[in-house]
Amino acid sequence: MKAIDEIDREIRKITVEVSDPFGDSSESIWEIISFLRENSEGKKSEGKIIFDLRKREWEKNMYVTLYLLKIIDVDSFTSRVIYRIRDIMEDSLYSMEGESLSIEADSIGIPMEFDTKSHLYFTRLQNFTRSCSRISGSQFRLVYQVFDQKGIISSKNKVQKIIREFLVQEMREIVEDIDGEVARRYFESYMHDLSDIRAAAEKMVTSMDLGSVDVDSFPPCMKHFISDAKNGVNIPHLGRFAMVSFLNKIGMKEDEIMNIFSSVPDFSKKVTEYQVKHIIGEISGIKYVPPKCETLRSNHLCYMDDDPICNSPNMKHPLTYYKIKKTRKNK
Fold first, then answer.
1. In what order do the strands lie in the sheet containing 147-148?
2. In Å, what is the CA distance from 244 to each residue of 153, 215, 270?
3. Is this model's pTM higher than 0.70 or not?
4. Are the C-beta atoms of residues 29 and 18 closer than 8 Å to each other?
């Protein structure tokens, strides 16, 4: 990916071209604004043409979108849009095979080799670990990888997810680096529409009421998952399962659990309701227990840091942490 000063020069050039209201740049910006508006209204906007990795304009469109998100400045909405772009880009990756996929990886900043005999890919260690830190599943843990002198050996499916998560992190970092005042100056003629989108996006942000449940006694992992959900960050599948099963076990009501998920980028009320009902036993008939600490650690979902209870030798389960912390508080 390009450095922020190079991106800024490109955006400045685009906005100069916009002086022609019928020019190509102006048309593409309005397409992006339409994409953002639909997302701010809770619709799952397609946007496939705008962010298709096979199209020459995808990178420019992505940069324009990130500048507009900086102007809108609603964190949960930014996360929602970034994950929507990620999904669109992932769809286009599925059509790429062999060397074309490795070339695409190289072009966005992930050096990769493709072996025509084995049909396997070779990824550098630092790129693998950076991209896979938030993907659940043992196949993405470093300890289970196979190495050779070229790097980590990966399948097509794994490479697609590496590229996908790399793009997410790059987009987040670019938004952080953009100067908001400069962005507003570049896109001043679009501020009325962007203000409307911001107002709609802010309405989507739902404050969480955790009822009588003792939030202060939550273990660090559960606090982290809930914070991510509240801030619109996508949570890995195992993290969602752990959070729902934990909250159910400590007595949180179903509608309160559902409310927590309402800000995540890929929120679907119908899908989330089914998943929550399944985990809490209304559909499956089984009230699932949260994963042990060991399982969360092996999937990079442990956030114990220097917490004294987490670091005690007998701490093996999030529910145990909650009971200990709550007992100490009551005393």
1. 112-115, 120-123, 151-154, 147-148
2. 34, 14, 16
3. no
4. yes
